[in-house]
């Protein structure tokens, strides 16, 4: 398996600075946003620009592990879906320019039962699956809001292989209350990319010994719940993702791709990401997965 980093997690001022910082960490690849607000937006990408960005990445010894095409809307609204589907197709095309075959996104929370919203998502994602298939790419749905079994059943219903899975073990643990090591077996046939992230579910009835500083003031478990927080992202190894069972389970599915570190919170992202790189290297060596 290879180690990557979500470029935006490094919080650098420009794409080049982010790539250089990622290279200094000794990782193998990067994931970067390709949406309306990003430097690598699909709206302005040309073949010439793509070659410039690709040269920056390659000259630093890296590759694109994936692009992120998350437009923060999901696919549960049938009226909005044609626009989001079209944008998603453009991102898949940009990914090809950047010698990358994976685009990740969130699709919204899938209910276990059949609803009009779920059918709208199915129609949109079937179209994207066929489009991605036609170009040898994957449009990868990020795990988290729903249990792995619900997502797997939905993907089975699409009837096309171009929509796959970006497996985020922390989202499953923090939000859905699922177990990463069992979820990865359920979804294994669809996994093309992963996020390396950790965290805990705060509203699961378990009392935690926490001391989290927010706005200069330390908050315990009860205080976080009182603020309406339902989960907490933590540095790798400090949450409820059991990497000692998860990584071997992931390997057992045949996956040998990227573990892309994503750190969305915290005051010292580069420090946390450096620790995450070292953590993953140790685990990959321990289980002979490098």
The strand line-up of the biggest sheet is 1-2-3-4-5-6-7-12
> Which structural category do the helix and sheet elements fall into?
alpha/beta
Mean pLDDT: 94
Order of helices and strands: EHEHEHEHEHEHHEEEEHEHEH
Strand content: 15-25%
Report the end-to-end length measured between terminal Cα atoms: 5 Å
Question: Low-confidence segments, ≥5 residues, pLDDT <50?
Answer: none
The largest pleated sheet is described as: 8 strands, parallel, barrel
Q: What gross morphology would you assign?
A: globular
Structure description:
This protein is α/β, with parallel strands linked by helices. 41% of the residues lie in helices and 19% in strands. It has helices at residues 15-24, 47-59, 81-97, 116-134, 148-156, 169-176, 180-187, 221-226, 243-252, 269-286, and strands at residues 2-6, 29-33, 63-68, 102-105, 138-142, 163-167, 191-196, 198-201, 212-214, 217-219, 231-234, 258-261. Strands 1-2-3-4-5-6-7-12 form an eight-stranded parallel β-barrel, surrounded by five helices. It has a two-stranded antiparallel sheet with strand order 8-11. The protein has a two-stranded antiparallel sheet with strand order 9-10. Helix 3 (81-97) links the parallel strand 3 and strand 4 (102-105). The longest helix is centred in the middle third of the chain and has 19 residues, at 116-134. It is globular and about 50 Å long. The relative contact order is 0.14.
């Amino acid at each position: 398996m290879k180690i990557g980093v979500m470029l935006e997690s490094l919080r650098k001022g420009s794409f080049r600075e982010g790539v250089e910082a990622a290279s200094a960490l000794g990782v193998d690849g990067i994931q970067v946003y390709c949406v309306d607000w990003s430097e690598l937006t699909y709206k302005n990408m040309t073949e010439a620009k793509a070659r410039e960005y690709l040269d920056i990445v390659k000259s630093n010894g890296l590759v694109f592990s994936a692009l992120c095409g998350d437009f923060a809307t999901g696919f549960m609204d049938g009226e909005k879906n044609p626009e989001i589907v079209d944008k998603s197709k453009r991102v898949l095309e940009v990914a090809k320019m950047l010698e990358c075959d994976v685009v990740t996104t969130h699709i919204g929370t899938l209910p276990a039962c059949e609803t009009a919203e779920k059918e709208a998502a199915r129609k949109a994602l079937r179209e994207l699956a066929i489009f991605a298939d036609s170009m040898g790419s994957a449009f990868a749905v990020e795990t988290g809001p729903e249990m792995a079994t619900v997502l797997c059943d939905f993907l089975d219903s699409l009837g096309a292989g171009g929509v796959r899975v970006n497996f985020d073990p922390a989202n499953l643990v923090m939000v859905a209350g699922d177990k990463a090591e069992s979820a990865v077996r359920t979804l294994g046939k669809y996994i093309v990319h992963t996020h390396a992230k950790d965290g805990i579910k705060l509203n699961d009835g378990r009392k935690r010994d926490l001391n989290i500083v927010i706005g200069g003031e330390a908050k315990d478990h009860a205080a976080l719940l009182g603020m309406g927080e339902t989960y907490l992202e933590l540095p790798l190894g400090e949450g409820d993702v059991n990497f000692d069972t998860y990584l071997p389970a992931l390997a057992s599915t045949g996956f040998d791709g990227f573990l892309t570190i994503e750190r969305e919170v915290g005051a010292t992202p580069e420090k946390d990401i450096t620790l995450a790189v070292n953590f993953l290297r140790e685990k990959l060596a321990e289980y002979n997965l490098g």
